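note to self — DONT lose this again. spent like an hour looking for the file last time. sequence + predicted structure for the chain T wanted, 136 res
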Amino acid sequence: MSDTTSLFFYQNNDIVVIAKFPDITDGTGVTTEFWYKDNKFTADTDPSSTMYVGDALTVGTDGIWFTQFHIPATHNALTGAFWWRVDAIDTQNHRRTAQCGTLLVEAVLWLKRRLRKSGLLKGLCITGLKVRAVLR
C-alpha cells in the first residue's frame, strides 16, 4: 500500500478524482473502486460507506494506467474530515489498495467573500476591452 494522501473537496461541488496506477502493467479487466467513508475504521459494509466504480482504465500519455471517479455534489454536502480509499481488483478478484487517506470537505466561504468584494454579488458586470465595471 502506498503512503496516505489527503484529498480536499469543496462543499456542494461535483468532484472528479483521477487515480493513477503506476504498478499496473496491463489494465485489461481491472476494475477500480473509490471508497468514501466516515473514518478509516468504518467497515465497507457499513451503510454510511459509499463506493464509486471508476471509469474503464486507460493508458495516459505518460504510459501509466489511470481512471476517473465521479463524486456527486450531494455526497459533499457536509463539511468535515472523512476517509477515502482506492482499490484495484484484477480478473482473479484480488483486491489491492492503491492509495488512501483523509478526505476533507471544506466550505467554500472564500469564494463568497471574493465575489462580494468584487461586487459580483451586487450585480456588477465586467465588460469592455479595457475591462471596466458597470452596474447592471
